[in-house]
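Checklist before submission:
- one chain only
- standard amino acids only
- sequence pasted in full

Submission:
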Amino acid sequence: MSQRAIRIIGLDPGLRHAGWGIIDSIGNNLVYVADGVVRAEPKLSLAEKLHFIHSALTRIVAEFNPAEAAIEETFVSKDARATLKLGQARGVAILVPAAAGIPVAEYAPNTIKKSVVGVGHADKDQVHHMVKVLLPKAKAASADAADALAIAICHAHHRSSWLRLRA
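Returned file contents:
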């Protein structure tokens, strides 16, 4: 009996660089589809950056038509202003798939690392290496795109539990 592919978009939000990665999950198999980074010009105002991110992610969602989305939960840094701005970019990244009727899962950073590497306190290099191992055809245009692919992989590993919780 063949299983159908579930297309997942992973989102790594940021104001300057918002990573995205798309995979197909077919049973226990993961297939790389695409990845990239939305790069907002530094000279843009906050509102213009958020609009730019919204427009770009809307085009990506329309082009690749994912069935599910996943995003990293917000972590709080010592810089409250930076945390608030990241929260605004994250809000836009959650809004885009939700507005398209796509359910969005959220995962803690340690859950993502543990899902991809096997340990919750892995460093970025270890995560990026395992993304390449798990998705050999992945281009991972940048660290942000690799992080987004890791988020999508995490969701593929946890989606059955996530679906039960949603039911």
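Reviewer check: The two ends are 25 Å apart (CA to CA).
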